Amino acid sequence: MDEMEEELKCPVCGSFFREPIILPCSHNICLACARNILVQTPDAESPQSSRASGSDYDYLDLDKMSLYSEADSGYGSYGGFVSAPTTPCQKSPNGVRVFPPSVPHPPQAQHHLLPHTGVLPPVPRNSCLTCPQCHRSLTLDDRGLRGFPKNRVLEGVVDRYQQSKAAALKCQLCEKSPREATVMCEQCDVFYCDPCRLRCHPPRGPLAKHRLVPPAQGRISRRTSPRKISTCTEHELENLSMYCVQCKTPVCYQCLEDGKHSTHEVKALGAMWKLHKGQLSQALNVLSDRATEAKEFLVQLRNMVQHIQENGVEFEACLVAQCDALIEALNRRKAQLLSRVTKEHEHKLSVVRDQISHCTVKLRQTTGLMEYCLEVIKENDPSGFLQISDALIRRVHMTENQWGKGSLTPRMSSDFDLTLDSGPLLQTIHQLDFVQMKGESVHTYCHLHIDTHTHTLSSKQVVNTICLLTEVCFLQEVYVGTEMICTVDGLHFNSAYKSRVKAYNSSGVGQYSKTLVMQTSEIAWFTFDPASAHPDIILSNDNLTVTCNSYDDRVVMGNTGFSRGVHYWEMTIDRYDNHPDPAFGIARADVMKDVMLGKDDKAWAMYVDNNRSWFMHNNSHTNRTDGGISKGATVGVLLDFTRGILLFLINDEQQGPVAFNTLEGMYYPAISLNRNVQVTLHSGLPIPDFYTPGESEAAASVC
């Protein structure tokens, strides 16, 4: 039950829902909170695409509604229209950004109800309401907030939850500190302590016929008492008796006679109530299976932590034993090898623990949604249930999809696939290194084709050994075989490598050839990688064009990683609808794929709309810069490892200052977008003329 509590709290005030209303986007909000975040817009600036409450909606033009400051991230609910640029935004207790109204309300308007009337004050004309969760906006009609249906099911679930949390029922007639109730009168519907019962409810006269029950029984009778019959929001005197299949909402008889539902298909309210309950129950069964699998998966991950720790200790012991068996020269190398093993150990633990944390959060959200849905299924109000059943069914299916392909697969193996070769002679001890790193740590950047004909013996059955210069000075064996040509993968772009070969056969071993110096390609060509992309990503045009089939942001990365050199690529905006916020940048291999790029600490990005952009890393938004994108625009990304910096361009002009610095390690080109955006990648581009790269690393120097 505790995990369901977040489902029962308003996204604005952070407290339990009070008089919740249902927005057209299926999210809920307190009636009072909705009143507080209303925005009044001038006639000339009202969004023309918005509809009256209860119908379709569109994105609100944030240029007309936002209050800008350097801290503004572009997200949140906006409560003012005209204000000084330094107006700070506020956060609700659950993290939703809400801007306060710019002009103070008159003293009387600050109350939610007009004095002595018990009704809401009139809503100003051209009032807009922005959902604090999905940020979609809506212009209210003449009915104002009354046009939104009340979520009686949610209100009932909140009441039951709060009652179940109460330590003890208190007397309702004690004036100062209420004492614990001992009885409840079913006719009066009041809880009494013993003194108040004797004083206010004596067992004589008409009161003698009242039935007194224990408080717990009285609480149950309150829950099971029949609720008030729901009435139509359009025709307040008519009861809801049918269900409009096209509009997916309960309607009354008068709506069918002369309302907008007169030509729509309708069905009996009770039949649709049972049908939707059945659908929700079936969806919950599938989600329950996923939750069970997730719990088993968490157990597997926790066991992996223990195995990694054990294997790490065992591997370190083997490494120390091998190093101690060598002469004094090996001891100088031992510390470096141990450091590498420790990093691999820590990396594995970090990846698994991150996955445990992420999976735990998703499981908690799934369990909370399941408990909330089970409480909703218990509701006896058909119309109230049908108001939210479609949205709940969609949420259950969406949550079930989050446990889909790859989500219950460990990102990291507990094995340490590092092999120490202790065979070299003592005079080559300075070349000692791990022969093989685990596949997930080996990245392909570039490759060379080497012809060994000129370096082999003129004998039959020649076996060639190629030694390639890596990391500037150390030769590493990369091929042994009978082929005269070999391809070496895993090299860096725009780098110099030295190689030499020797041959041997049954007659003996030949001498090493002269050292050859080879240069890899200066330009990095790559495409989007379908293997690592989120399942909602749609690729075409030989994996150069990307879009998405979801309204949520999804991530796709390039198929090539970079760790040195200077690289520049561009993306052309082929389609841009409804002012979304695509994000462009770079990411680690284990970046989260189901959120906007830059939300976690594995990505560095710039997200941009039609008017401005922000830099984002680890969910921190910085450097808001004017200038946005539209259809046909070009976004450039420049990654310079010689300086360790990342910067962005829009339409060949630098966007803001240098976005990020002190970058080192392995990064992949990445982008996040939703179904409103389509982009095409252009890689292998020359560095822009305005940019002067830093001094190159001495990668080609000779030791």
TrEMBL record:
Ranges of residues in domain B30.2/SPRY: 505-690
InterPro entries membership: B30.2/SPRY, B30.2/SPRY_sf, Bbox_C, ConA-like_dom_sf, COS_domain, E3_ligase_FN3/SPRY, Ig-like_fold, SPRY_dom
GO molecular function: zinc ion binding
COS domain span: 377-435
Keyword Zinc-finger: yes
Subcellular location(s) per record: Cytoplasm, Cytoskeleton
Keyword Amino-acid biosynthesis attributed: no
GO cellular component: cytoplasm; cytoskeleton
Domain annotation B box-type: ranges: 166-215, 227-269
The entry's keywords: Coiled coil, Cytoplasm, Cytoskeleton, Metal-binding, Repeat, Zinc, Zinc-finger
Name of this chain's protein: Tripartite motif containing 9
Lineage: Eukaryota, Metazoa, Chordata, Craniata, Vertebrata
